[in-house]
TrEMBL record:
Pfam hit, one: Peptidase_S24
CDD domains reported in the protein's UniProt record: HTH_XRE (cd00093), S24_LexA-like (cd06529)
InterPro entries: Cro/C1-type_HTH, Lambda_DNA-bd_dom_sf, LexA-like, LexA/Signal_pep-like_sf, Peptidase_S24_S26A/B/C
Keyword Cell wall biogenesis/degradation carried by entry: no
HTH cro/C1-type domain: residues covered: 8-62
Name this polypeptide is given: LexA family transcriptional regulator
Alphabetical keyword list: DNA-binding, Transcription, Transcription regulation
Xref: SMART domains: HTH_XRE
SUPFAM superfamilies: lambda repressor-like DNA-binding domains, LexA/Signal peptidase
């Protein structure tokens, strides 16, 4: 589960925004905000990124931690103090840039293929801030399609670190994103074959395995983390635990009433 719905409600409380005012900020319908807060649906990753950037929060913070009102107030105070701090007291530009990960949306992947080596293009991509120790060169790619389900779903975002194409260190069983002349290919490495050929598999069994020559790759990225807005269906064990919890609550209520 994620905490985005509860965090949206608390952000509105801190900012004194109505659901309608919050919806206007991000081009949403007012009922959509209510559905987010009640856990009936979750925003698309693009909307989630807009919310995070607008309020100066990280995407992972919105998804993985239920923020308290006090924390949000404190964060706002910190942000205001940072804006007013002298240049020498603020973090250096290099330090800040090292924490940024350019995001490549699915709709811009062909544009990325043409300009992947152009620093000005990369600098113009929407930057995300993720807590990681993956080094200075990272990318975030939006997944398109169902070929890696159930591991990765449509519109999930994956955080990647660069693999040196000259001396690629690749591990069987891990997920990689290969930038080719025509597409972004996300697959699991099944086997390394002779002559720099890889056997790649999709996690969706409806897609066949394929041989892939390393020479086809413009870039190679190892996938280290994923960020999703898809709610996971409870497992059978979770269902049983919920039933037991309800039964215990009913027994306690009867005992208290007797």
């Amino acid at each position: 589960m994620t905490y985005i719905g509860k965090n949206i409600r608390k952000i509105r409380t801190v900012k004194k925004l109505s659901q309608a005012a919050f919806a206007d900020l991000f081009g949403l319908a007012r009922p959509s905000v209510g559905a987010y807060e009640e856990g009936r649906s979750e925003p698309k990753m693009e909307t989630l990124i807009q919310i995070a950037q607008h309020f100066g929060l990280s995407v992972d913070l919105l998804l993985t931690k239920e923020l308290t009102v006090n924390e949000l107030y404190n964060f706002d105070i910190f942000q205001e103090a940072l804006k007013e701090a002298p240049v020498e007291e603020a973090a250096s530009e290099a330090d800040r840039q090292a924490l940024l990960t350019p995001l490549v949306p699915a709709r811009r992947i062909l544009e990325y293929i043409v300009n992947y080596h152009d620093k000005s293009f990369i600098d113009g991509l929407q930057p995300l801030t993720f807590p990681h120790t993956l080094g200075l060169v990272t990318r975030a790619f939006e997944i398109s399609g169902a070929d890696m389900q159930p591991t990765l779903r449509h519109q999930d975002v994956v955080l990647c670190c660069r693999v040196d194409k000259a001396v690629p260190v690749l591990h069987v069983g891990r997920l990689y994103a290969f930038v080719t002349q025509s597409r972004l290919l996300v697959r699991r490495l099944a086997e390394r074959l002779p002559n720099d050929v890889l056997k790649l598999r999709a996690d969706n069994r409806d897609y066949p395995a394929q041989d892939f020559a390393l020479s086809q790759a413009l870039e190679i990225w190892e996938i280290k983390a994923q960020f999703t807005t898809h709610l996971h269906t409870p497992t059978l064990l979770e269902d049983r635990v919920q039933v037991l919890e309800r039964q215990v609550e009913e027994l306690l209520a009867r005992t208290e009433g007797s």
